[in-house]
Amino acid sequence: MALKRLVLELGMGTALRSGSYTKAACRAVQNALWHNSLALVELFGAQKDAMLITVEIACQNPEKVDCEKVAAEFPYGQVSVAAVPGGLDIIPPDRPSATPTIMAHAAISVSLDIERKAQEGAS
Asked: How many separate domains does the chain show?
């Protein structure tokens, strides 16, 4: 299999009051996705479900991200999600015990097995 990355999209999402890392992660994915409509998969003659989508979420507490909920943001494709340390927790300076504002970043990579598709077309 020869994977070729077709797209890299970046997004940022926040959870202002809830303290939910999953909500911030989902919003980061939405931010990355909602600004685009790319028809690259069809250009290569592939089905949308053939897309291999790799999502990396960066936030201060990656273990608190529900990666299955983040993956559910994608309508098609084979999605894998990993949460890693990063992002930002913003604690109000006058209320250090308050729930922080959560900032998460998303990097979405869309790949396709282009070589295999070319070989299938040749046979």
From this structure: 1
Q: Is residue 64 part of a domain?
A: yes
pLDDT score of 123 more than 60: no
Q: What is the pTM of this model?
A: 0.87
CA 118 to chain centre: 28
Q: How many CB atoms lie within 10 A of CB 98?
A: 12
- Which amino acid belongs to residue 121? G
How many percent of the chain have pLDDT more than 70?
Answer: 92
CATH number, domain containing residue 52: 3.30.1330.20
Strand spans (E) along 1-118: 3-15, 52-59, 78-85, 88-90, 101-113
- Residue 120 reports pLDDT greater than 60: no
Measured between alpha carbons, how far is 112 from 53 in angstroms, rounded to an integer?
9
